[in-house]
């Protein structure tokens, strides 16, 4: 029977969709977002899978954490999966959620059977100059002020600034983005950058030996789209680029993204 419910597990907000007896599929959002960012692809996935969306600390409906270092967040995610009794699952991460997923596989290979990375920049040199509205919201001295007075319209513009196709931003996503603290967001961005600066994502994945799916928008406005091919060197990895899609394939191309995730979860390719 298909179900949808949510609860707090080890300080993280967890949403379940689809049949509990189904094969688990774990979805991890990116910086400044929440589990609701996956909303458009969930119905298709939940027809066949037990879909588990997790709000990372300080995002969505999860409370702040003492540390936002990527390995610490991965350890918290591992505690959630242990509590849920999950093993060797497919974990999909959007943007920096791909870093948390990769760190989870590094720490606990028993928990991760395969990895899907969506719009996850491989290394710091692949980062593009960011849209003006994002620079204004993030950088001091203007950032903290704008963060306090930001409207729903401004938040929607912040998301659409890195999209290439017209998108309808879910209301729950806007509401949950509003709840993110400025200092938390800045800290998360800094720690994400430190993780891939220490060692690139392709290098980390090459050491893991798990099946990997990389999905990149061919018109990503946050990461250089050509950097998707940095993953070509990773064994057992398939790279898919979606034409005319920006940084949010789940919002811009939910059907194509959902189909790729379903195929990967079923076949590992």
CATH topology: Rossmann fold
The largest sheet is: 8 strands, mixed
Which blocks of ≥5 consecutive residues have pLDDT under 50? none
CATH superfamily (homologous) name: Alpha/Beta hydrolase fold, catalytic domain
End-to-end distance: 28 Å
3D architecture notes:
The two termini are 28 Å apart. This protein has one domain (2-267): Alpha/Beta hydrolase fold, catalytic domain (Rossmann fold, 3-Layer(aba) Sandwich). With 269 residues, it is of the alpha/beta class. The chain has 11 helices and 8 strands. The model has no long low-confidence stretch (mean pLDDT 95). The chain has an 8-stranded mixed sheet, with helices on both faces. Helices cover 38% and strands 20% of the residues. The longest helix is centred in the last third of the chain and has 17 residues, at 182-198.
Keywords:
8-stranded mixed beta sheet; 11 helices; Rossmann fold; 8 strands; alpha/beta; 38% helix; 269 residues
